[in-house]
Amino acid sequence: MASHCVMAVTPSTPLLSFLERLQETAFETFAHSNFDPKTYVDMPLKSALTVTEDAFQKLPRNANGSVPVEDLKRFIEAYFEGAGDDLVYRDPQDFVPEPEGFLPKVNHPQVRAWALQVHSLWKNLSRKISGAVKAQPDLHTLLPLPGSVVIPGSRFREVYYWDSYWVIRGLLASKMHDTAKAIVTNLISLIDKYGFVLNGARAYYTNRSQPPLLSAMIYEIYNSTGDLELVKRSLPALLKEYEFWNSDIHKLTILDDQGCTHTLNRYYAKWDKPRPESSIMDKASASNFSSVSEKQQFYRELASAAESGWDFSTRWMRNPPNFTTLATTSVIPVDLNAFLLGMELNIALFAKVTGDNSTAERFLENSDLRKKAMDSIFWNANKKQWLDYWLSSTCEEVHVWKNEHQNQNVFASNFVPLWMKPFYSGMLDRYAITSTLVATGK
């Protein structure tokens, strides 16, 4: 079997397996419209897993397998902390109510007042990981991180990958440079341990990543602060993350209509089971499939859609809006490849400013090859945009490009290349040429 067809799977853990059983029992016991399965995989254990499992097994059961409500409530109170209790509030030291130079172009009093209200939210969202997580990691699904964190909020009680890019943009506007650098330090620690930045800082996210924007975060901080030491510390981790995204499961070779071969990348989670944070929902969706292998492939497509950050869009469905036709791993996405182009350009810049000219040259060459690949495989001259490309089979050594395999639907992701200078400059050049021709009557 070709290496890119091997069904790579990250092993689960005994803690996650148990918490999934607890989640299912809680759903059977408490079933109501606002049931949140994530709560039950976020709760830290008070005692060792073996002790907790033994107590769970001894709970009385109803005929349908559920536990009497009061018995399950007492069990959870006795053996678990609350979801999110392993994070503690942190007062960010670089926060001030109105930073000097904050949004200098915003003068309207009401708009400024609103912006400062948004700015004040950093105090509500700033956390640090409890010492208990580092002391007894086997009792938590939350992963220990070295620095302070900023969480999205609500039910999302942990750091998330591509959310952190937008968080950092906001922190830089708020002049909170130290907090922004701490986020980068946390994400680098995940690369050091797992080889890539996880979807989020939980044990159940170790099977997938998210859109690769770490280099963009570092670029924004460097552009704002000139912190060369941060760049030096970050470069080895970025090179490691780049290897992850160019591993066999993510990398594909395509032969275009001119007979040229190109390499592009896709999302591909290393998982073929229900996602622990949403196990009961995933199993319900997979019940439409009869065979084990079909269910496993569906679970992989679900997790891969989550890796894309677009969970769950008709963009990944062969027959939208039929949810069970998710086929994320069969799509070569415009946005992922644009983000990887940005990563290549950023690594080239970082290598250049730190004196590593050979790495800089290599990544400039990589970025040039990717731009050509994207223009060849994604660009649609009639629609004047880049379009996702559907694979007819995921196991071919070389995929032959066909015009009808471009996804003709319009998504915001089709325009992500315009965020990258090579495409932005190219579009300006095209606009200038067109304007000249119009002006001269040609």
UniProtKB/TrEMBL annotation:
Reaction(s) catalysed by this chain's protein: alpha,alpha-trehalose + H2O = alpha-D-glucose + beta-D-glucose
Q: Which InterPro entries match?
A: 6-hairpin_glycosidase_sf (IPR008928), 6hp_glycosidase-like_sf (IPR012341), Glyco_hydro_37 (IPR001661)
One Pfam family in the UniProt entry: Trehalase
Q: Which GO terms describe its molecular function?
A: alpha,alpha-trehalase activity
A Gene Ontology annotation in the biological process aspect, one of them, is: trehalose catabolic process
Q: Which UniProt keywords apply?
A: Glycosidase, Hydrolase
Taxonomically, the superkingdom here is Eukaryota
- Can you tell me which family this protein belongs to? Belongs to the glycosyl hydrolase 37 family.
Protein name, please?
A: Trehalase
Q: Which organism is it from?
A: Glycine soja
